[in-house]
Amino acid sequence: MSSVDPKIDFFSVVGDDVSPEAVSFLSQSLAAEWSMVDLSPSGVCDLRKENSQVAFPGCQRIVSECNVRVEEDIINGINVQWVIPENHPAERHRTNQRQEVIVFYLYGGGFVCGCPEDDLSITSRLATHLSLRVCVPRYRLSPEHHYPAAISDVTRVYLSVSKIFNVLLVGESAGGNLALSLLLSAMSSPLKKLDEEQNINAEREDERNASVASDHDKKDLFRVPLAVALLSPWIDLTHSGQSHRQLQLDPTLSVKHFLDPAAQAYSGAYSPNHGGISPLFADFPPPSSLWPPTTISTGTRDLLRSDAVRLASKIKTGFLADELESSNDIKLDGGQRNNDTNADTMSVFQNPKKDLNFVKEAECASDKAKSGSPIVDVRVAKEMWHVYEWSPEIPEAEVSLRYISEFLLKYSDL
């Protein structure tokens, strides 16, 4: 395997001892056997119901602990959920003559399942840690609605809220895909009309895209977010990364049994290497400080770790690094980790369970970026799996979300 370019200094391996809760999760999950996902009408209905049943207890506990308020709304024709922190002023639309800052959050689920309720364990804590409202659009899912239905929906909402609010953009897994696509659209110059790149035959979609394109022409309305956080983003639906092909230690994902069928269902008539479907392969602007500060979370067991690493490399350097893991970096051997990392390419944070104030204490590697270079970092949590932040019972999830919140606050000028 190729080594990481030694000039890249924005990777951090975090965590020392794995919590008992995480060990228990791994022990139970790794013992389970995979079966092929059923994306028939009845099968996908059962999948969504099962996913929500798994998420419900933890989400309800976190909602209660955080004492957030959940409200439904309709923005530009799309249903959205607002997660509102305790004691949030109803009239807080401007502070010191500045616009209110909100979090625009996009959930995952492989584009075939997922909903705002399933991610309340994450959005409730973000709302609480940031003391900001979180807006979560209910985008349409496949296989009922192929690409570009989901990105059309979230774009409609983003265009509307960005007229009123400054935005912190957060996405997990498939939601990270949508978040990156949104960001690339916002940064493109000139802005490209969605109906030119994402045309489909369905009359309803044509009408939607025409409406979005009309708004899209107003460049001053599609504003770049203040900062971005991506949690295990799924941005290569061709699954060409090394972790896709070689890593079989993730207890939550399988390329063969879930990701490949989900990618086919989402892509529809398009090729999965299309830049709108796999935004890792889309056109990126040249590396510059105009790219909003970005933090990317992944884990040593994350099946999609390659997506996170290659994305950071492309943002930072303009090219795709081969991989983070190499003979000098993280080694995985039969599920055991090697704690010896190359000091030239890795900066190891202190034990996060000892100090949650990472950004200040650890001096995030992104702060070392040269003038004119994008601020981006990747945090690889030892022994953690795909979107481990979704598991509220493990302390590592809280640690990561606190870090993400500190990062976003640091670069949001609040």
Structural notes for this entry:
This protein has helices at residues 20-30, 41-66, 120-130, 149-164, 174-187, 194-197, 203-216, 242-246, 255-267, 305-317, 358-361, 395-410; strands at residues 11-14, 69-75, 78-84, 94-95, 98-99, 101-106, 134-137, 166-172, 227-231, 294-299, 332-333, 336-337, 376-381. The protein has 414 residues and is an alpha/beta fold. Strand 2 and strand 3 form a beta hairpin. It is globular and about 50 Å long. The termini are far apart. Mean pLDDT is 79; it is low at 1-9, 91-97, 189-204, 206-220 and 324-370.
Task: Name some characteristics of this structure.
alpha/beta; single chain; nine-stranded mixed β-sheet; two-stranded antiparallel sheet; 414 residues
Assembly form of the protein: single chain
Strand content bin = 5-15%
What's the N-to-C terminus distance? Answer: 43 Å
Question: Mean pLDDT, rounded to whole units?
Answer: 79
Note poorly predicted spans: 1-9, 91-97, 189-204, 206-220, 324-370
Residue share in helix: 25-40%
Which structural class do you get from the secondary structure elements?
A: alpha/beta
Secondary-structure element sequence?
EHHEEEEEHEHEHHHEHHEHEEHEH
What's the total helix number? 12
Question: What spatial order of strands do you see in the largest sheet?
Answer: 1-13-10-9-8-6-7-3-2
